[in-house]
Structures are given as structure tokens and as C-alpha cells.
Design brief:
alpha/beta, Rossmann fold, Arc Repressor Mutant, subunit A, three-stranded antiparallel sheet, 15 helices
Length: 363
């Protein structure tokens, strides 16, 4: 293997290496220029961060994953690839790789996320299906999570015009089981996305991560029925944090399934009664329906550290999350130096990254 094929294999090896999360992946590529160079450098980075030993991803396991995806008729899409969702790529913590089935073109089409209760009412499911159908009739693509209830209705309404399903398991796992036929249709007629290798089961911890794919790849998120503290509200929050439009369908105040949507509207979300409301809302983003993603590997410039800087930066960290910009200000070091120190700690398994650009020590 050589050339572009080797580079793509190296990227997958880097992604599957221990402690290489989305932020670390971008920074490693920015610093070393290629996944192959980064793989050669990370044992030394881990040692500087305090790790006693570092073992990268097993090449045989990575090769097996690659072959399994190809056998399913899928493909790996990496950050920087032309078919990686443009707005998703804009998010700093976007998955470095997605596994995909289907060939639905997304360029030039508005993407609208639609989520809601699994135990949704019949009226809400009917409304979600019609709303997704109307979004498609106006040229849009509906994005959802293939869950029971509102997600299923949204996909059914948009199958003929364009639908994207982000799932929290492998491409070869059907969840929920009753949606197996729908999942196969989306893989054939729309686009099925996951960040998990084949065989990965739908564990509870996978779904918040799946929600960020749904929220971040769309111009806006519409919530149709949601109880307080539901996964749908998490998706709406993720959308808002990335500057996407948050929209909600109002419901009857005494129905617990409407309380989340009504609360979103009370807090400033756009009230949605039709597809026209959706397109009017997402049209306000950046003055139009589309935005250009920022540079794929927008990381700090390479910066070498002296030991005194490393100790000073590490000394400012604790198990309480702190914003990276605050570390830069307090340390007086350059942004590149601080990011390098944080990268070393992360590769060593000593640093945890949190939402909002915050970091904390794990030990």
C-alpha cells in the first residue's frame, strides 16, 4: 500500500489510536502534516505528557475494520474529503471519520435536523412526517437519528426527497430492530452515517455523540415533542452552541411530551408551524442558507516547549474544567505552546476535553 491509499489507512490508524480524540486528531495533522508523521511522533508526545508507554492502534484491527466496511458496501469519509458534511466539518469536535452507506449528494441543499420523543403521540408523528415531506418539496434534506417515534416519522416523510440517518451503532447493526427495513432503505436511497466500526452495539453512551452529528451537520434543528431533560433537548442545545438555529413545535401545556418544546420556545427558539417557518429561520444564518466551512485543520502552529513552560502550563490545570484561553492568558505562553502541552497530556491519557473549549486533568 502506498500513496493516497496508505495515507487514508494511516488516518484511520491515527483515529483508532488510544487518547486521540477529535481535537487531538486535528492538532496532530496540523502539527505534523500527515497521519503517518503523526503516528511516528505520538509515542514521544505521550512520553512528554507523562505516559510510561504508548501503543498505537493495531494495524490488523484497522485493516479488518476497513475490509468490514467495504464488505457492507460502505466507505470511510474523513475530515477534508469532498463528501464530508460541510457544516459538520466546521465544528471543532466533529468526528474525524464517518462510515457511510448511500450516495445522497448534500452540496447546495439546506439540511434540517428533526428530532423528538420516542413515545410521540400519533398527531405529532403525523405532523413530523408531513413537515419532513414539505421540507423535501422545497429542496431540503431531513437529518434525524432513526429512533422510534418522531425520528422514524421524519425519515418516512423525506425518503423520496432526501433523508440522512445518523446512528449510534455499526452500519451492520439494526436499532431499533423494527426499523431494519427503513435503515436498509435509507442506506440505498438516502445516506446512513455513523462514527462507530461495524459490529458496534447501540450502547447508551453512543447516543449523545450521535446527537452532535445530527445537530452540527444541519443549518437548524426542529424539535417535535420532547420531555424535559430528553435527548432531543440535548440535540437542540448542541445545535445552539454551534450557532445553528433552534426551532420547536408548540404543544398542549398539560402533555409532558410538549413541555420540552414549549420551554425551548419560551427561551427563544423559533416557533414552527410549517416548513415555511423553518426556511425563514435557517435563512437568517450567515445571511443565507449556506455557510462555507472553515479550514479543515485550523490548529495552532507547531510550537516546541521548554520544560519550564510545560511545568507552568501543567501547574495551572486541575480536575476542575477551565477554558483553554484562560490557560493561555495566565501562563503568558503562546497559543501554540499551550496547545502542544495540552496535546501531550491528552495523548498520555491525563487530560479530558469538555464542551465549550474547556479542559481538566484526569489525575
Amino acid at each position: 500500500m502506498s500513496g493516497p491509499a496508505q495515507d487514508r489507512f494511516d488516518r484511520l490508524r491515527l483515529i483508532r489510536s488510544p487518547n486521540v480524540g477529535p481535537v487531538a486528531y486535528r492538532q496532530l495533522i496540523a502539527r505534523f502534516g500527515s497521519a503517518g508523521q503523526a503516528l511516528s511522533a505520538i509515542p514521544d508526545l505521550a512520553a512528554r505528557g507523562g505516559a510510561r508507554a504508548f501503543r498505537g492502534a493495531d494495524e490488523r484491527a484497522v485493516a479488518a475494520e476497513w475490509q468490514a466496511v467495504e464488505r457492507l458496501g460502505g466507505r470511510h469519509i474523513f475530515l477534508g474529503d469532498a463528501d464530508y458534511p460541510a457544516l459538520l466539518e466546521e465544528a471543532g469536535a466533529a468526528p474525524p471519520v464517518l462510515m457511510a452507506m448511500g450516495a445522497l449528494p448534500l452540496d447546495g441543499r439546506p439540511l434540517v435536523a428533526m428530532v423528538g420523543a420516542r413515545n410521540a403521540s400519533a398527531a405529532a408523528c403525523r405532523f413530523a412526517r408531513q413537515l419532513a415531506q414539505d421540507v423535501g418539496a422545497r429542496g431540503g434534506v431531513t437529518v434525524s437519528g432513526l429512533a422510534r417515534g418522531i425520528d422514524t416519522a421524519a425519515h418516512m416523510g423525506s425518503l423520496s426527497t432526501g433523508t440522512v440517518a445518523a446512528i449510534g451503532c455499526g452500519l451492520d447493526v439494526f436499532f431499533p430492530p423494527e426499523n431494519a427495513a427503513l435503515q436498509e432503505r435509507i442506506a440505498a436511497e438516502g445516506l446512513l452515517l455513523t462514527e462507530h466500526p461495524p459490529g458496534t452495539e447501540p450502547l447508551a453512551r453512543h447516543f449523545p455523540a450521535r446527537n452532535r452529528i445530527i445537530a452540527w451537520m444541519a443549518q437548524g434543528t426542529v424539535v417535535v415533542e420532547a420531555a424535559p431533560r430528553s435527548g432531543s433537548l440535548l440535540t437542540a442545545r448542541l445545535a445552539g452552541e454551534e450557532g445553528r438555529e433552534v426551532m420547536a413545535v408548540p404543544g398542549f401545556p398539560l402533555d409532558p411530551r410538549a413541555q420540552g418544546c414549549n420551554a425551548l420556545i419560551r427561551d427563544g427558539a423559533t416557533l414552527v408551524q410549517s416548513a415555511e417557518d423553518i426556511f425563514e429561520s435557517v435563512g437568517r444564518i450567515g445571511g443565507g442558507l449556506f455557510r462555507q466551512p472553515r479550514a479543515t485543520y485550523a490548529g495552532p502552529p507547531p510550537a516546541d516547549l521548554v520544560e519550564a513552560e510545560r511545568r507552568q502550563i501543567t501547574g495551572l490545570l486541575s480536575m476542575a474544567p477551565v477554558v483553554v484561553d484562560e490557560i493561555i492568558r495566565l501562563s503568558g505562553a503562546s497559543a501554540g505552546a499551550v496547545q502542544t502541552a495540552l496535546l501531550e497530556l491528552e495523548i498520555a491519557g491525563r487530560l479530558q476535553r469538555h464542551a465549550g473549549g474547556r479542559v481538566s486533568l484526569l489525575d
